[in-house]
Amino acid sequence: MRWTAFAWESASRAFNNRPTFTGLVVVLAASSGGGLVAYADSQPDQPQGFKKKKVVVLGTGWAGTTFLRNLDSKLYDVQVISPRNYFAFTPLLPSVTCGTVEPRSVVEPIRRILEKKGGDFKFWEAECFKIDPANKKIHCRSNVGTNLDGNGEFLVDYDYLVVAVGARSNTFNTPGVTENCHFLKEVEDAQKIRRSVMDCFEKASLPYLNEEERKKNLHFVVVGGGPTGVEFAAELHDFVTEDLSKLYPSIQHLVKISLIEAADHILTMFDKRITNFAEDKFGRDGIDVKTGYKVVKVSKDAITMQNPATGDIAVPYGMAVWSTGIGTRPFVVDFMKQIGQANRRVLATDEWLRVRECDDVYAVGDCATINQRRVMEDISEIFRVADKDKSGTLTVKEIQDILEDIYVRYPQVKLYMKSKQMNGIADLIRTGKGDTEKESVDLSIEEFKKALSLVDSQVKNLPATAQVAAQQGQYLATCFNKMQAAEENPEGPIRIRGEGRHRFNPFRYRHLGQFAPLGGEQTAAQLPGDWVSIGHSSQWLWYSVYVTKQISWRTRALVISDWGRRFIFGRDSSGI
C-alpha cells in the first residue's frame, strides 16, 4: 500500500478510566506484510482465575500496527501473527528502489514496537492460510520452523479476529505479468527492482552487444499511472540523470523510461492541475507517457499493448514494473466464499469495520471495504423513527430532531447537501415538497422518499492508502478500549432498525491530503480545501511529513541520514 496522504492524525493518546474488555478478538488488517495478532483481555478487578479474552491480529502493516500501538494492552491477551516480523513504511518504497533510502531505514521490527507498548503480547512469524469462523479458529503455517509432523502448521483460536493482511498486486489475469514483471508492494520487491536496474546497465555495457540490444536492456517500462508508478518513474529518472549517467557515460543516451496508463491521463485521483503538470514535466524530462494504452501480454522480451487507434504494439524492454492496482489474497477469497461474499472484490464490512455475515471478525486496510448503508434501503424505518406522534406525516421539526443521527449514520446526506449548496434540511425537503418554511408543513412518506432519492449518489469507496488503513486501525483500537463502557453508555447514533443506540459512532475517514513526488526535487501536494501546491517548496513539505510519520526515532534518524548521504555522495549503485 502506498502512502499518498499529506498528513494523517497521530495516534490517539491513552484514554483515562479505560474499561476492560472481556472478549477474544482476532483482527486481519491490510498491510504490505500481512500478519496476525491475538489479544486476551481481563479486568484487573476480576476474581482469581478469570481468563482474558483473546484478540488475534493478522498483519503488521499500517492498519494492524496502528491498531496494536493504540490498543490498551492491559485489557487483552494479544497474539500477533504475520509472515513479516517488521512494519514497513511503504510510502518510501519507490525511494528504496533507486538507493535514495536504504531498506533497513524504512522498517521497524514488530517485536520492538510491542516491547515499547508493554503488556501481554505474543508474536509468531507465520502466515494464515485458512479462517474457520464457525469454530473461531485460524489455520496458520510457519515460515521458519516445523512441528512434529514436519509441516509447520498450527491452530490459533480467537474470541475476536481482526483481519489486516493487506492486498497483493492485481495482474487482471494478463498473460506473462507474474513471470516477467516486478511488483512494488514489499521491501523485497524494492530490493529486487534495485538489483534489476543495475543488472540492465551492466548487461548493456557488455562489449559484444549491438546498439539495438543495448537499447532493449535500457528500456524501463512502468505499467500503471497511479501514485506508485509515477513516483517510481520519477525516482528512476533522477537516479539515471544524477548518478548512473556519470558511471555509464557511453550508454546513458540509450536509456528510455516509458509510463503506460490505460486511462486518458495519469494521476487521475489528483486535481487536474497536478495531472497536467505531471504530464508536462515528464514530457520535458524525456519520460515517454503513453496514455490510453492497455497492456494485454508480457513476454520475456516484449510488452504488447493495445490502443484503439494503433491496434496491438509490441515493445522490447529490459525491465518492467507492474503497478496497476490491488487484488485479494487467496485465503481471504476462500474466507469470503464461506460467508457468502464470493461475488465481491474484497471483504465487505459495515461502518463499524465488522465483517458482514460473520460474528466477532473485523477487517481493516486494503483487504476490506466499508459497505455504507444506503438511505433508500432504510427510508421507511427512518420515517417511522422520525414520526414520533405516529401521524403518518413528518414536519420539518420532527426531521430536525433526528437530523444529527441521520448525518452520523448516513454521511452521504450531508455530502449531497454540500454538493448541491443546500443551507439546511429545508432546502433538501423542498425537492420533495415545495413550501417548507413552516415547521407545521406535513410531509408524506412518498414526498420524504422523493426528497432523499438522490443522496445515495454520494456513497463512494475509500481509496486503498496507508492514510485510510492507519485511521481505521486507530478507530478500531479506540472502540476496543471503550467496549465495556459503551455497553452501558452507548455513544453512537439511534438504531434505525432496532431499539436504543449504537455503541459507537461509525468510522469516518478524514482525508488530509496527498502527495505526488515528480522528481527533480519537485512534488505536487493536494490538501483539503482545493489547495494545490507544486514545486520545490512542496518537496520540502514532503520531506518533513514523511519524517514526522516515521514509526520510531530510529527510522527517522536513518531516513534523514540517507537523504543527507544522497545529497552529498549520490545514490549507491552497488548491485547488492
Automatic annotation (TrEMBL):
Keyword Oxidoreductase annotated: yes
Gene3D superfamilies: 3.50.50.100
Keyword RNA-binding: no
Entry keyword set: Calcium, FAD, Flavoprotein, Membrane, Metal-binding, Mitochondrion, Mitochondrion inner membrane, NAD, NADP, Oxidoreductase, Peroxisome, Transit peptide
InterPro entries with a match to the protein in the record: EF-hand-dom_pair, EF_Hand_1_Ca_BS, EF_hand_dom, FAD/NAD-bd_sf, FAD/NAD-binding_dom, NDH-2, NDH2-like_C
Subcellular location: Mitochondrion inner membrane; Peroxisome
Organism superkingdom: Eukaryota
Family to which this protein belongs: Belongs to the NADH dehydrogenase family.
Protein name: NADH:ubiquinone reductase (non-electrogenic)
Organism: Hordeum vulgare subsp. vulgare (Domesticated barley)
